[in-house]
Write a structure and sequence with these properties.
This protein is mostly helical and 185 residues long. It has helices at residues 2-15, 28-75, 79-86, 89-110, 117-142, 147-184. The chain has six helices and no strands.
């Protein structure tokens, strides 16, 4: 312990004469406290700015993710758009055949009666199956199948639907004629 005391004594002996013994000027303590307060306030401001930047960065990242998600969902094209991109003439062909099929379906539905109800229901079921097959052909075309062969199959599908509707319309007419003859007799 004496050794430590000696070391401290030596330190003070070495520093003697270099101590400042002057009295601080009037208001020194207040100025010192003001500087200390300003320093603390500036640190809080810097921290609050840092926190604000952190929240802005998080918000910016969130907005960027939202915009990426939005652009991804907006750029997704429909199957029909993809088919048209592969074969632009299919759009006109599909429009033409779809109108004919729609007209034939309306004719068929207008002839609905208790005697024709079953055959019309069966025909509508067959049309749905053909429509499902057509959708599969569209997917095959998009996935890079033989486009000439697939386009030919798509047109054949439309023609098959039209032929089916026309055949059923003839059968419905025959059924109505037979019913009409039976009611007369």
């Amino acid at each position: 312990m004496d050794k430590k005391k000696d070391t401290i004594d030596q330190l003070f002996d070495n520093l003697s004469g270099s101590f400042d013994f002057e009295t601080p000027t009037l208001g020194h303590q207040q100025r010192f406290l003001n500087k200390l307060t300003n320093k603390l306030t500036n640190n809080k401001t810097i921290n609050s700015k840092h926190n604000a930047y952190k929240y802005l960065a998080i918000a910016a990242c969130f907005m960027m993710l939202l915009s990426i998600a939005y652009s991804y969902t907006n750029t997704a094209t429909t199957i029909e758009e993809q088919v048209v991109a592969i074969s632009p003439e299919i759009s006109n062909t599909e429009f033409y055949f779809a109108n004919i099929i729609e007209q034939e379906v309306k004719k068929l539905k207008s002839k609905n009666s208790p005697a024709t109800k079953k055959i019309i229901a069966d025909t509508m079921l067959q049309l749905k199956k053909l429509e499902t097959n057509y959708k599969k052909l569209e997917l095959d075309l998009i996935n890079g199948g033989n486009s000439k062969l697939i386009l030919s199959a798509m047109i054949t599908n439309f023609q098959t639907r039209i032929d089916l509707l026309q055949d059923v319309l003839l059968q419905v007419e025959e059924i109505k004629n037979i019913d009409h003859e039976n009611t007369i007799i």
